[in-house]
């Protein structure tokens, strides 16, 4: 059987994937020995960066550092 220790969701609705617990954007959530991280779609993050913005990319980076303990 397959098991994951980290799940990254970009622009997905957690409920549509069968995840029925609160999952705020850019805040890793531990559930059943797995860390879940919900973020905006990568296309939105990329578009913001191309336009000179850094907010979403910065929030993603901070959340990834927490999720992966770096």
What distinguishing features does this structure have?
70 residues, alpha+beta, 17% strand
Order the strands across the largest sheet as they lie in space.
1-3-2
* Average pLDDT figure: 95
Strand runs, count:
3
Uncertain segments are none
| Tally of alpha and pi helices | 2
Q: Could you walk me through the main structural features you see in this protein, from its secondary elements to its overall organization?
A:
It contains two helices and three strands. It is of the alpha+beta class and 70 residues long. A hairpin with a 4-residue loop joins strand 2 and strand 3 (35-39).
Helix and strand topology:
Blueprint: E1 6-10, E2 29-30, E3 35-39, H1 42-50, H2 55-67
Parallel strand pairs: 1-3
Antiparallel strand pairs: 2-3
């Amino acid at each position: 059987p397959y098991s994951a220790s980290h799940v990254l969701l970009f622009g997905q609705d957690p409920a549509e994937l069968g995840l029925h617990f609160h999952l705020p954007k850019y805040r890793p959530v531990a559930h059943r020995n797995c860390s879940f991280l919900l973020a905006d779609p990568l296309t939105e993050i990329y578009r913001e960066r191309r336009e000179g913005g850094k907010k979403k990319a910065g929030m993603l980076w901070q959340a990834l550092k927490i999720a992966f303990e770096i």
